[in-house]
Amino acid sequence: MSRANLQKIWCRCRAPSADGRGRPRSPAGRATRGATPALRGGAAAALTLLFLVLPGCAKSGSKAARGTAYYRRALQDFAHGRCARAAVWLGRASSCGNPTAMAILGRMYLNGRCIQANYGLAVRLLRGAAAKGEIKAMRGLAYAYLRGLGVKQSFANARRWMTAASRSGAPWSFAELGDLYLHGRGVKRDRKKAFTLFLKAARLGSADGMQAVGICYAHGWGVAKDAHREIHWLLRATEAGGHKFIESLRDSRPRRVACAALTQIGLVYENGLGVRADRRKAEFYYQWAMRLGSLRATVGLGHLYQNWPARPGLRVKAVGLFRGAAVRGSAAAAWYLASCYQHGIGIRKDLRLAAKWYSAARERLGARVARGDRHSQYMLAMILLTGVPEEPARAIRILANLADSGKPRYEFLYGTSLLANGKGRASAASGLKWIRKAARGGDDGAMRMLARAYQFGLWGLHRSPAMAEKWRRRAAAGPKELQK
Fold first, then answer.
1. How many CB atoms lie within 10 A of CB 309?
2. Contact between 268 and 235 (Cβ < 8 Å)
3. Contact in structure between 230 and 214 (CB atoms under 8 Å)
4. In 3-state terms, the chain is what percent helix, strand and coil (to 5)?
5. Are 209 and 171 in contact (CB under 8 A)?
6. Which of 197, 244, 353, 424 could pair covalently with 341 via S-S, beta carbons 3.0-4.6 A apart?
7. What CA–CA distance (Å, rounded) separates 167 from 157?
8. What is the pLDDT of residues 20-65, one digit of tens each?
């Protein structure tokens, strides 16, 4: 095909169609109309020839203005899901010298997105855009040199483009440079400098930088190990990067740490431990922990949905969460699912299935209880107190052993079990003694129960509004360990 014929095709491509919608009439445009998201065959070849052979864009009007107009049309097509047609408009904008269009189209050719991958053409477009100061093009070029796509692999050239982008303050460039220094790619390994670059990227808002800072604190790379700062930065990375960050967590330790931290923060917001209770925030953190595969977060989210007064319709969803976690082996999920069947919460009441899941929960807890795991002993005691069938005497014996450990929460539970299931004044007095001990140890539940007992004169206590107010204020201040 001669150059004159190509120029004619190009002019016809610029002219708007008869319907006034600006649809391309070129061979490439007709090929993409109603086609799949990727340009193939003759359409892709024609588009490539237009970029390589034609000297520029339209002769009429300002070159920059026409490039901007084509770029805007490309954005409109992207917004409506017309990816292939957007590539045509980007090609026209690129021929007019629009650096943003050149950068986007170059990265599309580099990644094979919507059009067939062409590394050589991608590098040409990216170089042209990078020469005009386009940051996205610099990132694409750095990636091409790191991977050897369309060019010979060169860590030095990759670092050159990263450094150029860093002069403009691009957060990603500091994170990528830090990775080069961390692993010694093209430079001498320097973990301290890597950490400094990661920290700079993190402070500029890069989720990758935040993740890298957290991992450095986890392993002691260029900085002293610090579990608290590790959790802090991994949580910030989760909020900043969302699902992309979650998918990028390959290192098993940061994944476990982020998972546990997200679940714990969800628990704090659900129960208002030291902060104002916020169910929406609790839901957010539980859901991210679930994406990391946390069974504990799945159970926590189910518990949140089950006890959300403003959204009773979520109880059905809670049952689904409990069932999914129970099938995967969670004893706590089996316990909650059994309770749902027992009381008909979010599902039809069925005592037979309740007994089945209570039994499954007891079996799963058996080995951990035998090893002396206190939390498992507590769960087993609660199942024996409230499950099907009930075994209060055995539950009280387990709680008595837990109360001797000195933990206020277990002292409170033992006291309440004596009040609810004990016989005679001796049991009531003993239960009240353990509740008072737990309250002095800082358990907010014990404080609230003591306040109620003094207010109404329960369990042999004389009514005392002053003492009731005293314990109510202490409970409102929160547990002692959180005050510290």
1. 6
2. no
3. yes
4. 70, 0, 25
5. yes
6. 353
7. 16
8. 444 444 333 433 333 434 444 444 444 443 444 344 454 445 888 8
Q: How many helices (H) and strands (E) does the chain have?
A: 27, 0
- Is residue 262 within 8 A of residue 294, CB to CB? The reply is yes
Least Cα distance to 112 among 70, 149, 63 occurs for 149
Confidence (pLDDT) at 247:
53
Cβ pair 162, 146 in contact under 8 A: no
Average pLDDT over residues 231-239: 75
CB 420 within 8 A of CB 386: no
Which 3 state secondary structure label does DSSP give 115?
A: strand
261 closest CA partner among 282, 289, 296, 283: 289
Q: In the block, which residue shows the tokens 């990727």? A: 38
Structural tokens at position 341: 């069947």
Residue 194 exposed, middle or buried by CB count within 10 Å (0-12, 13-18, 19+): buried
Residue 484's pLDDT is 39
For residue 357, what are the β-bridge partners?
none
Site of tokens 């090929």? 31
Instruction: Give the pTM.
Output: 0.52
C-alpha span between 189 and 435 (Å, rounded): 59
Alpha carbons 13 and 40: distance in angstroms, whole number: 18
Asked if the bond preceding 55 is cis, omega within 30° of 0, the reply is no
Identify residue 260 by its one-letter amino acid code.
Answer: A
Instruction: Collapse the DSSP code of 39 into the 3-class scheme (helix H, G, I; strand E, B; otherwise coil) and give the result.
Output: strand
Fold of 1-167: 1.25.40
Which tokens belong to 387? 């499950």
3-state SS string for 433-481: HHHHHHHHCCCHHHHHHHHHHHHHCCCCCCCCHHHHHHHHHHHHHCCHH
Contact 156, 179 (CB under 8 A): no
Bond preceding residue 389 cis, omega within 30 of 0: yes
Longest dimension (CA), the chain: 107
Is residue 10 predicted with pLDDT exceeding 50? Answer: no
- Interval 337-394: pLDDT, tens: 988 988 898 889 888 888 888 888 888 888 777 777 787 888 888 888 777 777 778 8
The closest alpha carbon to 202, from 187, 191, 216, belongs to 216
The label of the residue with tokens 């030095």 reads 156
State how far the Cα of 370 lies from the Cα of 59, in Å rounded to an integer.
85
